[in-house]
């Protein structure tokens, strides 16, 4: 599968990057291709393109502040969207796979 | 810039100290960051650490970890400190708490300069590394500053 994600947090520092790494790690471990955009103190990095979003089997949001440029995801069907918090992903990265398997 | 470029010997404490409170830990580390030339003002950096604590939690209870960081104009060069506590410390941070064994402390320049972004990149790097069990294992077992630097340099996440 191809899984994409966006992470962001209130202060934009540690949680954003920990959550991104957690998603990448758990997806790779389970044999999936993955790309995660971070929206942190350094702005948008590893930005998801329209092509990435269209190709994705699932889109993970791990955010507790509003995601920038969210219009990009308007055409993603609800069943492909997984909404989590950075805290939940960091505390237990396997939650990402559990959510996907539950769909 | 790499983590090992800014991780300074006088700011790494391995099983050397325990603290009765977060404030005591911050005081001691602010003193060390100042002495090492990372900040020109111990007081300003201490204050910046405390201000950040009010903005959102820096404790990660699942990993026995805290990552306090201070952002202020008095930070003049990037610096990272690491403490492996002799005794776990009950660390409360913006409504979350946990018993902490490992503390990564970072100093980040204020304003909006290129230097600040470099400091932030180091913080992002530490945050990402912490999600790897193998890296946490290095922190748990490393015997000295020198071996810590060597082990971090050898560590790859791929």
The helix/strand order of chain B is: HEHHEEEEEHHH
C-alpha end-to-end distance of chain A: 14 Å
- The pLDDT mean of chain B sits at 94
Helix vs. strand class of chain B: alpha/beta
Overview of the molecule:
Helices cover 34% and strands 27% of the residues of chain A. With 103 residues, chain A is an alpha/beta fold. Chain A has a single domain (2-101), classed as 3-Layer(aba) Sandwich (Rossmann fold), CATH 3.40.50. Chain A is globular, with a radius of gyration of 12 Å. With 158 residues, chain B is α/β, with parallel strands linked by helices. Chain B is built from 6 helices and 6 strands. In chain B, helix 2 packs across helix 3. The interface between A and B is medium-sized, with 21 and 22 residues.
What features would you highlight for this structure?
heterodimer; A: 103 residues; alpha/beta; Rossmann fold; 27% strand; B: 158 residues; Mannitol-specific EII, Chain A; 6-stranded mixed sheet; 6 strands; 42% helix; globular
Secondary structure: elements and pairs:
The complex is a heterodimer of chains A (103) and B (158).
Chain A: E1 2-8, H1 14-29, E2 33-40, E3 43-45, H2 50-55, E4 58-63, E5 81-84, H3 86-91, H4 95-101
Chain B: H1 3-6, E1 7-14, H2 22-35, H3 42-55, E2 59-60, E3 65-66, E4 69-72, E5 79-93, E6 96-109, H4 114-129, H5 133-141, H6 145-154
Parallel strand pairs in B: 1-5, 3-6, 4-6
Antiparallel strand pairs in B: 2-3, 5-6
Helix pairs in contact in B: 2-3
Short description:
Chain A is of the alpha/beta class and 103 residues long. In chain A, 34% of the residues lie in helices and 27% in strands. The two termini of chain A are 14 Å apart.
């Amino acid at each position: 599968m191809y899984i994409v994600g966006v992470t962001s947090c209130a202060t934009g520092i540690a949680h954003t990057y920990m959550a991104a790494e957690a998603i990448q790690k758990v997806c790779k471990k389970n044999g999936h291709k993955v790309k995660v955009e971070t929206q942190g103190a350094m702005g948008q990095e590893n930005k998801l393109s329209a092509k990435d979003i269209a190709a994705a089997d699932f889109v993970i949001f791990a955010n507790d502040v509003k995601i920038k440029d969210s219009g990009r995801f308007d055409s993603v069907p609800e069943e492909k969207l997984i909404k989590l918090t950075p805290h939940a992903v960091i505390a237990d990265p396997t939650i990402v796979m559990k959510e996907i398997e539950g769909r | 810039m790499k983590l090992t470029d800014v991780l300074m010997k006088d700011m790494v404490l391995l099983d050397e100290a325990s603290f009765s409170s977060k404030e005591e830990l911050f005081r001691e580390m602010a003193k060390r960051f100042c002495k090492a030339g990372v900040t020109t003002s111990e007081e300003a950096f201490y204050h910046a650490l405390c201000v950040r604590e009010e903005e959102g939690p820096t404790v990660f209870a699942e990993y026995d970890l805290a990552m306090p960081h201070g952002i202020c104009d008095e930070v003049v060069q990037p610096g990272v400190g690491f403490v492996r506590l002799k005794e776990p410390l009950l660390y409360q941070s913006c409504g979350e708490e946990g018993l902490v064994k490992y503390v990564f402390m970072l100093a980040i320049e204020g304003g909006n300069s290129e230097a600040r972004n470099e400091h932030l990149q180091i913080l992002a790097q530490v945050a990402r590394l912490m999600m790897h069990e193998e890296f946490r294992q290095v922190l748990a077992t490393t015997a000295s500053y020198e071996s810590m630097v060597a082990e971090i340099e050898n560590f790859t996440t791929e």
